[in-house]
Amino acid sequence: MKGLIYKDFMLLGKQARLLLVMIIGLTGFWTWTGDTVTGAFSFSAVIVFMLSMNCFAYDELAGYEKLVASSPIPKKQVVLARYLSSLVVWAGTTAVSLICMLAVLLVKQGTLLTAQLAQIAISVPLVLALVIVLMAVWFPIFYKFGVNKSRLILILVCALGAALLVGVIALFAEQPISLSAFTGWNQVLLPLLAVAVLALILSVSYSLCVRILEKKEY
What we know:
Elements: H1 2-12, H2 16-33, H3 38-62, H4 64-69, H5 75-109, H6 114-174, H7 186-215
Helix pairs in contact: 1-5, 2-3, 2-5, 3-5, 3-6, 5-6, 5-7, 6-7
């Protein structure tokens, strides 16, 4: 398992310096010029998606899946390693963004505002949920069709997702939700429900990836 995760990190090693510069530069710029910190953390979700797609592309180019198919390595470990490496990359990029963000805020303001800390505390779990959903949706597609064939599917899904997001925003704009609904016991129940839903989504996606990899013919 450690070797599989290390393999993913080695694939991404050549991009590490450029990635670090991009994260620090964009996070610093957004934090200095913007009124919100959500965009900086959302960038980590995009980075994780792009790097994960690169790992699939490198594996496909090198014929790695054929090697896995002929080796005694359990397919469950192969899939689990890809999920874990992606989450570790997200944690690393988020940590760098957080350190850079706090440093810029301290230089700009001399202190950290309570509202900013609250926004950071809310943004990180939301972005993590976005990362999990992205992995849950795209990893089975990458395992099934490969990266090159998945590009058209990526465009179609993104278009449908954007249309759905616009519809949801329009719906909430017409019928805004009162913040009073998220007080009391809802403050405990809703986060637990969200964790359970994300865990279920991730579990289904993982099982689907394992099944695809086990039945895939080369």
